[in-house]
Amino acid sequence: MKEFDYIILGGGLSGLSLAYHMHKLGCLQYKTLCILEKRNKYDRDKNWSYWDFDNNLFSKCVIKSWNKFNVIWKNQKLDIDCKHSPYRTIDSKKFYNFILQNLNKNKNIKIVNNCKILNIKKNIIKTNKDLFLGKIIFDSLVKTKPSKSSIYQHFFGVEIETKKEVFNNKILDLMNFDCKQDNGLHFFYILPFTNKKALIETTWYSNKIKTKKEYQDEIQTYLKLHNIEGKITFTEFGVIPLNFQNTNYATNIHVPIGTAGNLTRLSTGYTFQAIQTFSQSLALSLKQYKKIIIPSARPKKYNFLDEILLHVIRNNPKRMPSIFFNLFKKNNPKTIINFLTDRSNFIEDIKIISTMPIILFTKTLFQYVLRWKK
Q1: What does the pLDDT look like over 215-229, one tens digit per residue?
Q2: For FRET with 99, which of 19, 245, 345, 363 sits at 20 to 30 Å CA-CA?
């Protein structure tokens, strides 16, 4: 059996981020840490995007930053300024390399790859490699399965390089709703890295995951419609269950992190910035107080509002493009971005809520309360 002060289950975004902040703040100068990761090696597997409020924390990993974004519906286009919080995209491979280079400098950190977790009993982890004993376990393994009523955010994207300059790399399409809307909420998400290179992603909110061919057909339809021809150099696929995780097992010696700790914002799927805030706070408490103080994932008001919004999306998907479009149209950029990133104050919350269809959301709220009482 191998013993460590800390063990992180899962060396993905949340696990590596926590290890990095613990290392950076000096929490591991006299303590040992082990990361148990199922993958054999780290390759580029996704991109992470976020509105940045922290002065470009991982600047070496950023592919591109934008100060403007579009929201499009029925050939109407909103050009929205976000200079106060630039929208950035991180290459996962660059992020993995950056973090691992830093962690490898610390002899008290061990990463075990190709490690399958077989069983967890208190603070003893049984794997295909060995038994591991940790005084404190940080757990990123998702345990709560989606219910039949759950919906998913699911997406398929291609990175395409063209010979001609066909993209405007000064502005991204955050939500382009001018596409087929059936059996869910659908939009295209376009990240133009250069005038000749972009990530084009078809994104859905629905209770049914599509086949690979269906996603590919949607991408091809978009490319044909916009006269885009080029070479596909990278693809990504993701499924995010939009349901709350059960964290009743959490203690000061078994701490859920990442999506398992409800750090994914259910209404948007954004996780990156919340993970950094959570990891920094957790590492800081270890440094200052020599004990675990579990930070709140986010203010509870967002969980409540997200539940209502997801209920509306599930039951009224075809109304959502106009609702989202008006949400961005009727609120200033700072208000809407603060709301989407867990930073809004009471006045901003009221402004956001006031731009929603009152009858629809009141009815949904009433149904939600009745269901909760049952």
Answers
A1: 999 999 999 999 999
A2: 245
Instruction: Judge whether 151 and 47 are in contact, CB under 8 Å.
Output: no
Condensed to tens digits (0 to 9), the pLDDT of residues 153-192 reads 999 999 999 999 999 999 999 999 999 998 899 999 999 9
Residue 295 lies in a domain: no
Under 8 Å between Cβ of 29 and 290: no
Same domain assignment for residues 207 and 332: no
Residues 249, 231: Cα–Cα separation, whole Å? 47
Element (H, E) at 102: helix 92-103
What is the span of the domain harbouring residue 347? 300-373
Same domain, 156 and 230: yes
pTM of the model: 0.93
Domain-located, residue 78: no
Q: Distance between CA 167 and CA 27 in Å, rounded? A: 45
Measure the CA angle with vertex 294, ends 90 and 5; round to 5°.
Answer: 85
Q: Is 290 left (phi over 0), alpha (psi -120 to 50) or beta?
A: left
What is the number of alpha carbons within 13 Å of residue 12 lying toward its C-beta? Answer: 19
Give dist(CA 42, CA 60) in Å, integer: 17
Q: What is the Cα–Cα distance from 110 to 108, expressed in whole angstroms?
A: 7
Give the CATH number, domain containing residue 8.
3.50.50.60
The number of distinct structural domains making up the chain is 3
Lowest mean pLDDT among 134-138, 140-144, 222-226: 140-144
Same domain, 140 and 274: yes
How many angstroms separate the CA atoms of 275 and 15, rounded? 9
Residue 79 within any structural domain of the chain: no
Q: Please tell me whether residues 358 and 316 are part of one structural domain.
A: yes
Mean pLDDT of 246-263: 91
**Under a CB-based contact definition with an 8 Å cutoff, are residues 134 and 6 in contact?**
yes
